[in-house]
Amino acid sequence: MMQQLWQRWHVVWITMLALAPIVLLAIAALTRLRVRAGLDPVTARRRSLAEVLAVAGTVPWVWMIMTPVRVPPDFTRVYLIPLSDLRVQMIQPIGFIVPQIVGNLLVLFALGAGAPVRSAAFAAPWRLFALGAACSAVLEVVQHLFVDGRVFSVDDILVNALGCLLGGLATRRWWAKAPSRTRPLAIAPR
C-alpha cells in the first residue's frame, strides 16, 4: 500500500520538501513585517505560521485530488446521496479505504488548523466545518468539471469538512480572540 502511494505521489511530496526552505523564509518574512508594523512578536509569529502552513499544508492535497486518474468506463462519477460513496468505499480492500478516508480528512486539515489561529472569525467549530464544506464543494465541482476520472461526492465534502474541523480543534489552544468591544465611557454634561 505505502509503495503504491509513494509511486503515485512521490513528485508531490518531493516538491513540497524542496519548497520547505521557502516556506520557512515566508514565515520569517511575514513575522518580521508584522513586528515592524507594531504587532507583538508572539502574535506576529503565530499569525504568520498559521497563514503559511495553512497554504503549504493544503496545496499538496489539492494537487493530488486535481490529478487525473484512470477509471473503468462504467465507474460511478457522481454521488449526491450522503453516505452512499462511503458505503461503496467500505467494501473495498483496506489498502483502498485507509488512504481514501485519511486522505480526505487531510485535504483541508491544515486550512482548519490555521484559519482560527489567524482570524477569530473562524474560531468556532461550526464555522470551521462550514469553511471546510464550502472549500470542499468548490474543489469537488472543479474536479468534476475539469479533471478526468474524478468523482463528485457529497461524502468527500463531508469528510473534507470534518478534516477542517479536526485541524481547527487541534490548534484550539492558539485560536485568535475576537477584539473586545468595550464602550467608551460617557462623560456626563455639566
Biggest sheet details: 2 strands, parallel
Give the uncertain stretches in residue-range form.
none
Instruction: Report the total helices.
Output: 8
Strand sequence of the main sheet, in spatial order? 1-2
Global Rg? 20 Å
Shape: globular
Number of self-contained structural domains: 1
Query: Average pLDDT across residues?
Result: 91
Protein model, in words:
- There is one protein chain.
- With 190 residues, the chain is mostly helical.
- The chain is globular, with a radius of gyration of 20 Å.
- The protein has one domain.
- The protein contains 8 helices and 2 strands; from the N terminus they run αααβααααβα.
- The model has no long low-confidence stretch (mean pLDDT 91).
- It has a two-stranded parallel ribbon with strand order 1-2.
Topology:
Layout: H1 2-18, H2 20-36, H3 41-65, E1 78-79, H4 84-89, H5 94-106, H6 109-118, H7 125-146, E2 152-153, H8 154-170
Parallel strand pairs: 1-2
Helix pairs in contact: 1-3, 2-3, 3-6, 5-8, 6-7, 6-8, 7-8
